[in-house]
Design goal:
Elements (H helix, E strand, L loop, with lengths): L1 H8 L8 E4 L5 H13 L3 E5 L13 H15 E2 L5 E7 L2 E8 L7 E3 L5 E7 L2 E4 L2 H9 L12 H12 L5 H8 L3 H13 L3 E6 L2 E6 L6
């Protein structure tokens, strides 16, 4: 059952709920993925699998497990307890790391000592802005149901279901509205925790919060 389940996972591409690793990266890099999944909707990390989903195996499972636990316990705050299973797939030893969605929100401390809050966006682990991190920790400031959304807000959420991200300027142009009106919509939807803002590489963009939007 376990091996067949892993085989079915390997048919998928990397995405919000699944990530492939040939081997465990540095504990800091691995911590970003573990925390991002815990902060979003949970997921699976398969170690010993190439990017195209082909099992390549791990030579030292115990060492790989040690790196996973170091990442989850020492780099994530509060610590995360992933499930780790050793599975044989096509004659290769693969580590199956299961990360449950967490009620607590976890930060990752980078090598410079800065605590960052990561979320899963498609197949990437991205830090959110300080404002978005606080919103995700505290919960929505307002509650919006689908009937509360105007056509521009509905269109934006639909767009973000298909695309990874959008900036203020892109939204303004795409919706054919002023930047002021676009900004008001983004602020309102972020306050409702339907979207998340990211201040990344000197550029602010917005992504969908999959935990709040189905």
């Amino acid at each position: 059952m376990t091996a067949s389940h892993i085989a079915s996972l390997l048919q998928n591409k990397e995405g919000e709920h699944i990530e492939f690793k040939r081997s465990a990266p540095s504990s800091f890099k691995l911590a970003k993925g573990i925390a991002a999944m815990a902060n979003t909707t949970g997921g699976t990390i398969l170690i010993g699998v190439a990017d195209d989903g082909v099992p390549v195996g791990v030579a030292e499972p115990d060492e790989e497990k040690r790196i996973v636990l170091t990442a989850a316990h020492e780099h994530c705050s509060p610590p995360i307890e992933p499930q780790i299973k050793t599975v044989s797939v096509a004659g290769k030893t693969v580590l199956w790391v299961i990360v449950e969605q967490s009620r607590a929100k976890h930060t990752v401390t980078d090598p410079r000592g800065k605590a960052l809050f990561y979320v899963r966006v498609k197949d990437k682990n991205l830090p959110v802005s300080g404002k978005a991190a606080q919103r995700l920790q505290d919960g929505p400031g307002i509650t919006l149901s689908p009937k509360d959304l105007d056509r521009h807000e509905t269109a934006l959420l639909t767009y973000l279901k298909k695309h990874q991200k959008i900036t203020l300027q892109e939204f303004s142009r795409h919706a054919n509205i002023s930047k002021r009106r676009a900004s008001q919509i983004l602020v309102r939807l972020e306050k409702a925790a339907l979207i998340r803002s990211h201040d990344f590489d000197k550029r602010v963009f917005y992504t969908l919060n999959p935990g709040m939007v189905k």
